Amino acid sequence: MKNYFRFEENNTTYSKEIMAGVTTFLAMAYILFVNPQILGDTGMDMNAVFAATAIAAAIGTAIMALWGKYPIALAPGMGLNAFFAYTVVLGMGIDWEIALFGVFVSGIIMILITLFKIREVIINAIPAELKYAAASGIGLFIAFVGLQNAEIVVPDESTYVALGDMASPTTLLAIFGLVVTVIFLVLGARGGIFYGMVLTAVAGIITGLVEMPSAIVDSIPSLAPTFGAAFTGLTEVEWTSALIMQLIIVILTFLFVDFFDTAGTLYAVANQAGFVKNNKLPNAGRALLSDASATSVGAVLGTSTTTAFVESTSGVAAGGRTGFTSLVTAALFMLSLFFSPLLAVVTEAVTAAALIVVGVLMAAALKLIDWDKLEIALPCFLTVVVMPLTYSIANGIALGFMFYPITMILKGEGKNVHPIMYVLFFVFAGYIFFL
């Protein structure tokens, strides 16, 4: 095992790798409870999604460990799960089974573009500012969902949204969770989001706002309600031209967000670990293929896109340097399968803080956009604000990608726009105007 992961070459030990793997798991364990709640809003069985989340994370992380050999953990991604639930299923009205098929296809396409080395072309085609805007917009969208779950933001007939009753017990519990989570993160606790959820759940039980779970450990939940649903649902839906067009947009969005999320996370973790040499990542292709494979596996199990988690940097900071770190994290995800009864205590008020904080962290990319250039600022602004205002990640990406070629042409910079962006203009225009 030491030779396989090159412990001596990476100046590491079993104790360092194990501690790093545990650290990474604690930093991202919140996804085990947040993901079932988000996907559960679509009507999916929460216990089955919990199992799918844990198994997809375990398999994806193990593939990354054994093949990619990077200390990077994977799990169903925040933002992509929100897009799946609130935009695709609840917004577009697409059945969750068909949405899972879209996730599966996006994973297969990711595998192909990585194998045929097309990823560099795509990376260069899409302007960096639009990538930052998409990440930030998704962050605002997630934070908006969190504020709604906390009942800090509520519907209003006159103004569409308004401030909720800040003195209500549910809102106070969510605010307590937000404060506690921020304290943990400010103090540098690597599992801050997870610890914040734990303390919020405990506070909810003490105050009677959250029911005590019937047990802590139980048998592994059944995957039957979601396993293979991505394919069984294909024969139960009426395929129309509108549905096919919608599904194409859905697949493109899954692909776009996962592609750049993975590439960015991989670079960030590898750079922190000291793996980047001459601005190149060794075995980058293997790492990207590991991520793509995990996405398709997760879709079959019954969860939204599985992707690399930037929380992996916490494990690297703790000394993780090889895939053995990821192997430890994968084992802990498998072990977590026995703790499904804890889903009962993870209410919307308990997870609200996690959504808000993750949204804040994602919105940090706003600072990387050149707001002084209107031809760049306008499409980026539309991408960011349209997502939460229309409750649709796809709408934000569509309008941003449509307006970018337009503003660049008006600026006289049309020749500098990659041909792929013009193709995407017509694809997204068809989505906006005809669906």
UniProtKB/TrEMBL annotation:
Q: What is its main location?
A: membrane
Signal sequence, start to end:
none
Q: Which key words are in the record?
A: Cell membrane, Membrane, Transmembrane, Transmembrane helix, Transport
Task: Report the locations given in the UniProt record.
Answer: Cell membrane
Topology within the bilayer: Multi-pass membrane protein
Classification via InterPro entries? Azg-like, Azg-like_bact_archaea, NCS2
Q: Which GO terms describe its cellular component?
A: plasma membrane
Gene Ontology terms, MF aspect: purine nucleobase transmembrane transporter activity
Source superkingdom: Bacteria
Q: What residue intervals traverse the membrane?
A: 20-40, 46-67, 74-92, 98-118, 130-147, 167-187, 194-217, 237-257, 324-343, 349-369, 376-404, 416-434
> Which Pfam family is one of those matched by this entry?
Xan_ur_permease
Q: Which family does it belong to?
A: Belongs to the nucleobase:cation symporter-2 (NCS2) (TC 2.A.40) family. Azg-like subfamily.
Protein name, as recorded? NCS2 family permease
Origin organism lineage: Bacteria, Bacillati, Bacillota, Bacilli, Bacillales
